[in-house]
Each structure stands twice: as C-alpha cells, then as structure tokens.
Amino acid sequence: MMATKTILFLLIPVLVRQASGNLNTYPAPHGIQASNKFQVYLSQGGNRKSSFTYITTSDQRAKEVSHAKGGRSVSWTSFSFSGGAVTAEIHTPHDFHSCIVRPQHYGYKCQRTGSKIAHVTVSSTSRMMSVEFDYDYGSSNADIKDKMLIFADPPESNVPNEHDSSVLFYKAGVHNLNGQMHLNNKIKTIYLAPGAWVEGGFLSTANHGVTLRGRGILSTRSYKWHDNRFSWGMLNFDKGNNHVVEGIVMVDPEQYFFRGLCDHNTTRNVKMIAPWTYNSDGVGMGHDALFEDTFIWANDDSFKVITNSYSDYITRTGVKTFNIVLYSQMVWERGMMRSGGCVHSDHRRLY
Q1: Key word Signal present in the record (predicted)?
Q2: Antiparallel, parallel or unpaired: β 266-268 and 324-332
Q3: What are the structural domains of the chain?
Q4: pLDDT tens digits, residue range 156-179?
Q5: What φ, ψ does residue 70 adopt, rounded to 5°?
Q6: 263-290 per-position pLDDT tens digit
Q7: Which residues make Cβ contacts (< 8 Å) with residue 246, sequence separation at least 6?
C-alpha cells in the first residue's frame, strides 16, 4: 500500500506538468530595441511571462531608395511551447473596437479585453500569424502601417555542440558579420540560438549541404540595398545540395532572403519579414525543393523556381519540371511564383 502511495505521489507532478505544458520565451539580445508599438505577455496554466517584442522600420530604406515607403514598422515576438494552449495578451498603441487574426484558417479569435488590450489563444505550434486592429487594417489601396506578428514555434531538439569544429554557434546577443560570410569546407551547421541577432549573411562554397537552424534572427537591416558585399541575398546557398534552413527569423533583406538554386533544399518553420524594398524576393530554388510551415512576406516573387544550369538540365534529361512541394505556407505578397520553366508543384494549404 505504501509503495502504491509513493508511486502516485511521484506521478502527480508529472501529470501537472503535462496538463499545464511548457512555455519558453526567448531572451532579449542586449542592444536591440524593444518595440515601442506593441508589448506582448504570454500565459499558460496560470504562468504569465513577458515575451520580448522586436521592431524594425522602413525609414532607413526610404532614405536609400525612392520606392520604399517611410513610416512603416513591423513588430514581432516568437516563443515555443508544448502542452496546453497559450494566451497572448497584446498591448496596442491605440484603442480599438475589433481585431482579427490572419490566416483565418487557424480559427483563432482576437478579443478586446480592455482598453488597448487584445487576447489571442494559440492552441498549436508552427503557427505564424498577423494580428490586425481596426485603426490600422489597411486595404487594397493602403498597407498596414504598423504590423504585429506572432510566431509560435515547436520546442527545439538536438541543439548542436557549440565546440564542434563543423558548427558555427551564435549564442544570445548581437553578432555583426561585416557582410556575407563565405563558409569554408568544414562548416556543416550554423546555429542561431534563441536571443541571437546575427547581422549579415552566409554564402556556401562547398559541395556538401549546410544546415542553418535555431530560433535566432538573421538581419541585413544595417546594410545598404543591393550591398556589394552580398551575392544575391542574405543567404546564397547556390553551391552544394541538400541544404536545410529551419526555425529562424529573417529580417529586412538587402536583396533576396534566400537563394538556393541547387537541388533538394528544405525550408521549414522560417519567417521572412520586413522587405521594404523592391527585389526582395523570398526564395530562389532549384529542383526537388520542400517548403513547410514557412512565413514569407516578400516584395517581389515569393518563390522563384529556376536553376543554375537550367538549359543544361533540360538538354541532359529532357525534364522540364522541378517537383516543388509547398506545405502549410503563409504568404504575404504582390505576386506569388515565377518560373524559369514548367513547375510541377504540390500546393498543400498555401495561404
């Protein structure tokens, strides 16, 4: 009888944790400004936490090029959780009567719960959403001036060893690469930890695949539009095959977000935001690419389907399809897909 009571006693804390879940907010990088437009608090099972809310604006791009609109901003926050639903409490700069969560397919409701306060309950991970308020809804003729995005990640697993010589490991904090880093032959993994803000980009140089993953942020907002230190975009993974980009937020591209014109690349749970200038394409891709649970806000093509050796490929194989799978994508953009040939794609839940 005593053994049975002991087992029950040990099980109760486990069951309580499973019922309440596990909510993880990410650290704030020292030196990065918090949003002055929105603040977000998260609650799960009675546990309430502040979630650091980033902001970036269009003002610098508007000074560089005439086609960029000034006076725009996007605020965003990211977190991960398991178990029970998480309630996001959003504090706004102005009061409002109604609000909405997009994509509406999620079925999430935005509720006004007080002056300048909205609540949204998030029941699943891999959710990337825009919360929009009636004082700034935008229209077919006008954009939303101050955007608010919420990214709910699944919990991380298999964090790489920071002492592994094949790993570039960026801890929480601000890291300036002074341009686009050319990866040497040894590098196989780039990891951006939660709370890491990496200012710069990466270019692959080896024949093997590179995995870029984590919950950190890659930005080029401090670089000029079409900065000559970059080849095509923030990420240029044209060299090699079987590249993977997973989990990160990509902010304010100096040109493309991600160009990978080689084969068998995977993009999963990536968020691409703040494309204030033209020619801010989402992804340039080659053959047999997979896109899953990814948020793309582009200012040109979201997906550009082409290859480094397109003409040679047709000559050798006679094949004119690229076998692209798009699953559970969230797309904000003017045009969606441009192809250098015929596209054989599987569009599953593309919004």
Answers
A1: yes
A2: unpaired
A3: 24-153 (2.60.350.10), 167-350 (2.160.20.10)
A4: 999 999 999 999 999 999 999 999
A5: -80, 175
A6: 899 999 999 999 999 999 999 888 888 8
A7: 211, 212, 213, 266, 267, 268, 269, 270
Asked if residue 69 has pLDDT above 50, the reply is yes
Average pLDDT of the residues of the chain: 87
Q: How far is CA 87 from CA 24, 49, 92, in A?
A: 13, 10, 16
pTM: 0.87
Answer for the pair 134, 228: CB distance below 8 angstroms, yes or no. Answer: no
Please give the C-alpha separations between residue 7 and each of 21, 161, 180, in angstroms, as whole numbers. 21, 36, 56
